[in-house]
Design brief:
It contains 4 helices and no strands. It is an all-alpha fold. It has a domain of about 30 residues. The radius of gyration is 24 Å and the shape is elongated. The protein starts with 10 loop residues before the first helix and ends in a 24-residue tail after the last helix. About 0% of the residues are buried.
Length: about 100
């Protein structure tokens, strides 16, 4: 598991964190983890699987439709993307 060090935190902010942690009956470290989790993983975040399932229901896609698509799709592995042209000069065009 990763560790994070926060430097140059003001005394006022540190005191406020301690107070907030005490209000939530947890350590200062646990409070900081909770704050960071809430900031980067909000409850209302878009969940791709849920969004795709909702879109499928909206357009009326059934399991039979998915099975039909599976039967006709190309099962060969895709060629990996090539990003070499991103490293070229701005005036050059991408290699194809």
């Amino acid at each position: 598991m990763a560790a994070v060090t926060i430097r140059n935190l003001s005394d006022e902010t540190h005191r406020a964190l301690k107070v907030r942690a005490a209000q939530h009956n947890r350590s200062t470290e646990a409070e900081m983890r909770a704050i960071l989790e809430a900031a980067v993983r909000p409850e209302q975040r878009l969940r791709l699987g849920s969004a795709l399932a909702e879109m499928s229901r909206t357009i009326g896609l059934t399991n039979a439709d998915v099975e039909a698509l599976e039967q006709v799709r190309d099962a060969r592995p895709a060629d990996p993307l090539r990003f070499e042209w991103f490293c070229s000069t701005p005036t050059s065009s991408p290699r194809r």
